[in-house]
Amino acid sequence: MNSTLPPDLNPQHLPQHIAVIMDGNGRWATSRRLPRIAGHRQGAKTLKELLRCCKDWGISALTAYAFSTENWRRPTEEVDFLMLLFERLLRRELAQMHQEGVRISFIGDLSVLPKSLQAEIERSSAQTRNNQAIHFTVAVNYGSRNEIMRACRQVAELVQRGELTVEEVNESLVEKHLYTANTSEPDLLIRTSGEMRLSNFLLWQMAYTEMYFTDILWPDFNRAAFHQALLSYQGRDRRFGQVKASLSA
Ligand code: IPE
Ligand code: IPE
Ligand code: MG
Hints:
Blueprint: E1 17-21, H1 25-31, H2 36-56, E2 61-68, H3 76-99, E3 102-107, H4 115-128, E4 134-142, H5 144-160, H6 171-176, E5 188-191, E6 210-213, H7 223-234
Parallel strand pairs: 1-2, 1-5, 2-4, 3-4, 5-6
Helix pairs in contact: 1-2, 2-3, 3-4
Bound molecules: 3-methylbut-3-enyl trihydrogen diphosphate (IPE) (2 copies) and magnesium ion (MG).
């Protein structure tokens, strides 16, 4: 498919940071009488394509929800498969992503992930740290409530140690203690598979994010579907609480 931006999209008005809740892998597989894991395998291909498309079209950051703090409740075989899939993907795709200038980061409580996966995460983040083409963030064992609670604890400790006064606790300080410190907030959230909820994803960061929901199942989310999401985004008026959309928005 064409790697240039479709002519009906305005390059000056693209979302700079896109977040995706990649949902519907299981249903995609089940509808084909395949095991759920086949849906996850196909979903990984979709993500790879979307990352490339974002890079080609000049979007500077993509954040993908890969595994939530609640997903541990799934059958062990599915959880084990997902962990193995993440590890394999990193091992297999790192060289090419690095070559294409992708900077990879991970958000979530990574400390409880399998050690071998942690090692791949470490390696890929370190190797791609200075890349500039696109910032690709993967949320693994991520939950917003856990993230905000952790930030509260860190701030409380600073106050307890006398390194900070209560008056110094403000929004930007809280933000510095989130996993997403030093990154921009998403401009656009895309969730596939017809579910219209956030499922504990980036609750703080998405206070003013535009939301786009589609019935398409994640493994079927292709460039044409992404194009539709961007067209919808470009038709919106982001007011940020004001009466008229400001020029900077
Ligand atoms: C999203 O697809 C992938 C993960 C949560 C890892 P699902 O596995 O949730 O697919 P459905 O919602 O069951 O169809
Ligand atoms: C959200 O999808 C998590 C990820 C996509 C990783 P879920 O399928 O887990 O969400 P719920 O359970 O439908 O809310
Ligand atoms: Mg789901």
